[in-house]
Amino acid sequence: MKLLQELRSSLNRLFVFELSDHSRVEAVFYRGDTLCLSTQVGCALGCPFCISGADGLRRNLSAEEILGQYELLRSALPVRRIAFAGIGEPLMNWEQVETAFWHFKKSGLGVSFYTTGYPTSKLRRLLQLPHRGVTISLHAVSEKKRKALLPHAGRLQDLLQALRETLKELPKRKRKRISLAYLLLKGVNDGEQDLRAFGELVRELGLSATLLRYNPTVKTYQDVEEEEYEKAFLLLRSYGIRVTLSTRFRKDSLGGCGTLTIRRV
Q1: CA–CA separation, 80 vs 255, rounded Å?
Q2: How many CA atoms lie within 13 A of 115 on its CB side?
Q3: Is 71 tagged catalytic?
């Protein structure tokens, strides 16, 4: 495994790695302290708004390859946090991801996860870990609409059942570190009825919300206007829930959400 290339924007530093079989993955250093790592070569979820899985899933990364992304950069970067938020679904490579997680924890690093929650059997185990945060991509409260946005992320009702059962077992301190993510897509899931259903669900589960804006990686989908984004935020806040907004790092065209790829030229 070797570091092939570094790209920089005014916000993020993106690193392209080449693996022993010549596959490529990417990692991003952002916020001045966090390294976002990939867990798979490609992704099987098939989300049409994200280019990370445009070529499907090639293979899982080994724990050594996951750790290697950090090891090749640790001397040059002030990394204090690890985010499993790069290319791939962490839960679909759970054994290797969990092994890497404990290595990071032993090194004194805080570790957070971004996941669709599929497979749900692994989600239950993830939520029990001493993580620094888990953000679960929901994006729709309608089974049909979520299936269109996350085609291979399992049934929404199975995810909600797993959440309801597992949350009962968690102390309040841990529940406060779990968030449901909602990516606003113009004309798709930005209607008032959609947002109210999401707000009600977040409140019912006793979690927080992460309201994301779209990085226009494919022409099929569009970002909402600033005014619409603020309106959606205020509507969700009216449910008495904590709402985290997209940071400028997540919205950056280099290394932002949905922009990582296994075939960058």
Answers
A1: 18
A2: 26
A3: no
Q: Active-site residue among 26, 36, 50, 89?
A: 26
Active site residue 257: yes
Residue 157: in which H helix or E strand, if any?
helix 156-167
Is-contact 4 17, C-beta < 8 A? Answer: yes
Catalytic residue (one of 36, 43, 50, 257): 257
Q: Quickly count: other Cβ atoms within 10 Å of residue 76's Cβ.
A: 12
Question: What are the pLDDT digits (tens) for 119-177?
Answer: 999 999 999 999 999 999 999 999 999 999 999 999 999 999 999 999 999 999 999 99
pLDDT in tens, 70-112: 999 999 999 999 999 999 999 999 999 999 999 999 999 999 9
Q: Quick one: CATH architecture of 2-245?
A: Alpha-Beta Barrel (3.20)
Q: How long is the chain?
A: 265
